[in-house]
Amino acid sequence: MDLIWDGIREAFRIIASGDYSVWEITIRSILVSGTATALALLFGIAVGATLAFNEFPGRNLAFSLVNTGMGLPPVVVGLIVAIALWRSGPLGDLRLIYTPAAMVIAQTIIAAPIVTGFTAAALRSLHPRLRAQIYGLGASRLQMLWLVLWEAKLPLLAAVMAGFGGAISEIGASIMVGGNLAGDTRVLTTAVVLEVSKGEFAPAIALSLILLALIFLVNLILTTVQQQEQRS
Prior knowledge:
Structural class: mainly alpha
Shape: globular
Radius of gyration: 20 Å
Oligomer: single chain
CATH superfamily of the domain at 49-200: MetI-like
CATH class of the domain at 49-200: Mainly Alpha
Number of strands: 0
CATH architecture of the domain at 49-200: Orthogonal Bundle
């Protein structure tokens, strides 16, 4: 118990002292995972809508791949991205290995199937005649997509929360493609692993509490928006 209380006191000490390195790591975590979530939304909404609204050969296989991707092990993603970005890999000339950009790519691959699955499920739950009614009012295909997405905005907010949570909480891929470099690619999850490997449990608990507080804050904001939309 003393170890836990030491970690909690350390967390408050770090926050109160304004430790630059911790805030730098926190901001980098938000930027990397936020960018990955935004890219996953762009991909996930497009693919999710395609799966929900179109019948085509292999549709069930596509759904199975998406559902499998929702549980894709981050270390597998990290391995694939690392091989692709390695100096001798097919994308080695881009020199992205051990950079924040590589971490964004890995986290996007992790979050995209989650967003896709949530989006497809949300759109499939809408009334089957809704699109026909929207088209009947003279809407274009793009306008129709915007209106049905707006109609399914509450479950789509859940997709954002799940995608962001999956991105910011993963660690295996970030270490493999980012290298956990101080001042460059170190984020909250990888910093926790580093502190534990050094036997420094109090800072590890402090960083973990900051990570949990960050995830809670994002989910609180999105849940508040979700609840307000339900009441309106």
